[in-house]
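writing this on my phone so excuse typos. first protein, seq and then structure
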Amino acid sequence: MPREREDIGHYILAGYVTVAEAQWLQMNPPHRSVVRDLRDNLLVHLSAYPLGEAGPRSGLAELQVFGSAIEREPEVWAKEMDDRVGRHMIAVGRTVTRESREQARWDMLLPLGSPSTDRWQAAINVFTRVISSRAVDGLIHPVLAANSICGWPIPGPLNQPDVPGIAMIGTTKRLFDSWKDDRSRRDEIEQDMMDAFHAGTWS
């Protein structure tokens, strides 16, 4: 997710961190998986349209070729995505055609985004769960994860705090603001972020 490096650069320029401190924000775990990055990016791109961040075709071509990739190496994909989310994605991906891919977007997102009352809420649940899971699995620093989530605007009629993704926006905003303002408590605040991400990832 390329925005992470841009955010680190912004933190340096804004004075939130020194150059030396910024080095610690970069996560390069040895277990990083190409498939994991691909699956997370696909979910983010599919969510962009209902979140109002992209046009209606966002992620659709990517979804179709995802299905083709599964057909070429089914055993590899089954092994790399052997969890509830991955198995759901594979099941949907195997059904996608050019004609069905618009419906396949919702077949992919709505079950993963429950509980929700509409597509925007489902998409924000998926987005925040993707980012939370990446923080929990050591693929993104918790500060960068919090910043990725906390700035999302919530349409007034949809602002229901009991929706998991909306609750996560509020939590990360509070924690990220505290992290910026209180250098003496940063370790503690980063642990609070991780606790929130553990609670907010895929159940």
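second protein below, same order as before
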Amino acid sequence: MPPMRWALGQRVMSARRLLETSDRSIEQIAAATGFGAGANLRHIFRRRTGFTPTAYRRSNAAQGAR
């Protein structure tokens, strides 16, 4: 796996953790994980996971409430 692809995967994993464990905004998570803007995070996150960050957060919250 090319280093840039691996690094992008790590950033997505960090964003997932923050979506699961914090109530930070998408913009704040994007900045904290190196995506810069929320639009960049939304695009890459959806391409990598099949979910938008908001949908991922909601899905995770619903599972945690069970």
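The helical segments are 3-21, 26-32, 38-49, 53-65. thats all i got for now
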